[in-house]
Amino acid sequence: MNEIKGGCLCGSVRYETARAPLMSAVCHCIHCQKQSGSAFSTNVVVPSAGFEIASSTLGTFNDVGESGAGVKRHFCRKCGSPVYTELDANPDVVAIKAGTLDDPSWVQPQVHMWRCSAKSWGQVSEGAVCFDRNPPA
Ligand SMILES: [Zn+2]
Ligand SMILES: [Zn+2]
Fold it and tell me: Does the keyword Metal-binding apply (predicted)?
């Protein structure tokens, strides 16, 4: 894979990066459930350096993580799609919502986090590395 590209439902928010993804992870936390409207959020973590966003409709919800650190949840103000998240605790990376990728076929989440709040209808794949809450730093 040479380049990661994607965007929101209406196409007003577009992003790309030429950097290789660092990991893919499924988050079962309550905040991701609320924001995604689903049982979990699947995220592809990429370096923030080289991550380029093009949009005039980008909105930000300033959330707070369990640690008390800020979590900036970016979404499209036109169509409402959650697109990516920045973590004050780790400014070197951004977490892209995997469902917004133009080609998500290669995504294979290695990690499941916040299993303590996982829903029975949000399956955790067998053999996955699981953490009850956030992975240790
Ligand atoms: Zn949109
Ligand atoms: Zn989460």
Answer: yes
